[in-house]
From TrEMBL:
This is Transposase. Pfam families: DDE_3 (PF13358). Residues 46-118 form the Tc1-like transposase DDE domain. It comes from the Bacteria. InterPro entries: RNaseH_sf, Tc1-like_DDE_dom.
Length: 159
């Protein structure tokens, strides 16, 4: 999310909506703030996504099936190799190109943008604090998270 007004900056968020039968739906996320400094990463790379998936695996105590869009960092050669090396606990399905309507995470991002976009003029650090606050609240609203999944036409019930 780019920040208008004061200087250059961006807040990047990577998140997973996690569904496990018999448990509440979870949102696991990581945030990165870019201040426009030289050599500072502007967003998430393959290593950051790998760390997020590793953390999710540790938190969820089991195998993970990920449904991913075609972000370049998701389909890069290093990420494909990393995924292949973890085939015992990680299964990745790719969404078709340009299909935000079937990506449940898009509901999370739209919800966030609608709540805080007008507050972004206070600067990048204030925006990061607001985003984290809203995400933290969202983590404990399984009905809201389930609604993002249901909006896509996906089922929360096991096959």
């Amino acid at each position: 999310m780019a920040v208008p007004g004061r200087g250059t900056g961006r807040v990047s968020i990577a998140g997973l909506l996690c569904v496990k039968p018999g448990q509440r739906t979870r949102l696991i996320y990581r945030m990165s703030v870019y201040h426009g400094r030289k050599y500072e990463p502007k967003g998430f790379g393959s290593a950051d996504f790998a760390a997020l998936l590793t953390d999710a695996h540790q938190q969820l105590h089991g195998p993970i099936m990920v449904v991913w869009d075609n972000l370049p960092a998701h389909v890069s050669a290093p990420m494909r190799a990393w995924i292949a090396a973890r085939a015992d606990w990680l299964l990745v399905y790719r969404l078709p190109p340009y299909a935000p309507e079937i990506n449940p995470a898009e509901g999370v991002w739209a919800n966030l943008k609608g709540k805080i976009y007008n507050l972004a003029i206070h600067g990048i650090d204030a925006l990061a604090v607001l985003l984290k606050s809203h995400l933290k609240r969202m983590q404990y609203q399984p009905d809201l998270l389930n609604a993002f999944i249901t909006e896509t036409g996906l089922s929360l019930e096991p096959p």
